[in-house]
Design brief:
Layout (H helix, E strand, L loop, with lengths): L4 H16 L13 H8 L2 E7 L4 E6 L4 E6 L3 E9 L2 E6 L6 E9 L2 E8 L14 E8 L13
Antiparallel strand pairs: 1-2, 1-8, 2-3, 3-4, 4-5, 5-6, 6-7, 7-8
Length: 150
Amino acid sequence: MCRSPANRAAVLFAAIAIWTAPASASDNGIWMDAAGLAETFKGKELDGEYASGRTFKELYRADGGLRYKDDMRESGGHWSIASGTFCTIYDDDPAGGCFRVQKIGSNCFEFFFVARTEAKAPGPPDRDPSWTARAWFSGDKPTCKERVGV
């Protein structure tokens, strides 16, 4: 069956669109939205690691409270969602902040710092978020791939 040039072009464009489309929204650098952040993290515990290799554990309680623990400290605080960012604010440590989050696997999330406080989220429009950490649901096998510096 002979196709017209217009039909061949349409098929070619459709094939290119399918071939170049991202495998999933979670693998193409799209930030998680507020609803996705709340649904994903509310009531969950994550294990994670920073670029330095230091590990941590954080519990995001359903009531908005949180517990943070690493080999140097343990802290309480609260988590929230502000301007499309996931914020972790600690009671006794200014190291928290607000982060853009990407889901990069079935059990892997990457966190990118944007602002120190909820009031300053989503951060300056002229500055790209900086990679801070990755984490996964505690008790489940992580699906994170190796990353330079981690």
